[in-house]
Amino acid sequence: MSNFKDVTVELKGNSYFDGAVTSRTIILADGTKKTLGFMQIGDYKFGTELAELMEITAGELDVKLPNSDKWISIKGGEAFDVPANSQFEVSVKSITDYCCSYITD
Fold first, then answer.
1. How does DSSP classify residue 6?
2. Virtual CA dihedral for 36, 75, 51, 48, nearest 10 degrees?
3. CB 3.0-4.6 Å disulfide test: which of 13, 21, 84, 100 passes with 35?
4. 2 in a domain, yes or no?
5. Which of 7, 23, 105, 20 is nearest to 81 (CA)?
């Protein structure tokens, strides 16, 4: 999907790691919440309460998912799932755009 229709955009942005990771929250007409953002080159560790689907729209990173010692390479057009109440690590290789969907089911 290259665009979303009928969305509400929260004006306040989200900024992490001294601005190296930023995003904006959007809410779709059905109430689904997503964030659209980008990550600069670097290493980051995130925590999440809800399960997430991380779709990488451009760029390249390695991800280490919870309960794993393996790094997985992900590039634009690919995605990965993160379980609820967990932490994951990313090593961003090039500036990366992403869409994060929060799974509430």
1. S
2. -70
3. 100
4. no
5. 105
